[in-house]
Amino acid sequence: MRFIKIKYGFAYIVILLTLITFLISFNFIPTGFEHRTIIESKSPQSATVTETKRIFFMKTHKCASSTVQNILMRFGHMENLDFLLPNMNNYIGNPIHFNTSMISNNYSTEDGKFDMFVHHTRYSQEIKSVMRPGTIYVTILREPTALFQSLYSFYHFDKKYKCNLTQFISDRLSNKSSANQIKRYSNKLGINQMNWDLGMDTDDFVNTDKINEHINMIERDFDFVMIFEYLDASLVLFAHLMQWPLEQMAYLPLNTRNNTYKQILSNYDINRLIQVNMADNMLYTRFIQKFKKMINEYGIEKLKKGIKSLMAINQKILETCVQSVANKGYARTTSYKLKANTKTMCKYIAMNELKYTSHLREIQYERQKKYKALDKLMNNN
Hints:
Layout: H1 2-25, E1 55-58, H2 65-78, E2 116-117, E3 136-141, H3 144-154, H4 157-161, H5 165-172, H6 176-181, H7 193-197, H8 208-221, E4 224-227, H9 231-242, H10 267-276, H11 278-298, H12 300-321, E5 322-326, E6 335-338, H13 344-349, H14 353-379
Parallel strand pairs: 1-2, 1-3, 3-4
Antiparallel strand pairs: 5-6
Helix pairs in contact: 2-14, 8-11, 9-12
């Protein structure tokens, strides 16, 4: 008899607990906590994380930055965000450091602040004054020797300097002082390119104290630094940081070239490029170490799974959108012929920077035009 009472008592408790859980789940019983969907916490203490939508991307030359830029353009376009856009072409400053006078009234906003800044500029901390609160600051770096080779070939330095890269190294880069005095191509391209884009003065390129001071500033100002050689890993980590679905990182490589156009250099040439690009080497070394630390914190096996997933996403994009691939872009960069009647997404993922920028200008101009017309109506007594 006692056993039967215990049995029914236990059953009663189970039924009661089940009923309470049911009522709580439908908010019939208040718990004192709001119902939240937890995407993924950046830290154990964080209860909820929402995706970030405000970005400054420092577009460094020849570091796969056009590919990353396209990802950000598509996101901002889809979300109807406000871009800080160049008045023409694809530069907002450089060689001059960015300043607010460079902002075009045609594409400005009511508050003079922006959600997205993804075009070429020359970094200055004045950028912070025009970005909205909560902006994430991002850039991308590349091994400096490979970067300089790519610059030399892509921008046809051989025509300006009237010699190939090996001759340029032996004739123009014979010592540090002469290297530092070489005028930059188009006043913005040359040695220590990444530090130049990130705002460093050329007079400081041979001063290790100044270089470290500048790198420390970059480390403070930027939330995340991608690495060209590990682009897919960078994008997986970036998606995690931004709390975006990995599908948002889908890409087709843009403004890239086949390795057949790369000149083979001797060990002497490579060492010389390392020496004259001292500032960029110090920058790259610092952030490679930070990148490795970030991978350890995220988890190497988890990262490999993310890379595998991103590669599968990109392969599906290629099969869905692209009919053929050629090297017919500027300086024999990769170009894509799309399949007929493809999705709208295909058009934007393969669109070059200048064309996409023009499209965003049209959208933003019309939006601001309608806002101004409405303000005029309401202020007209």
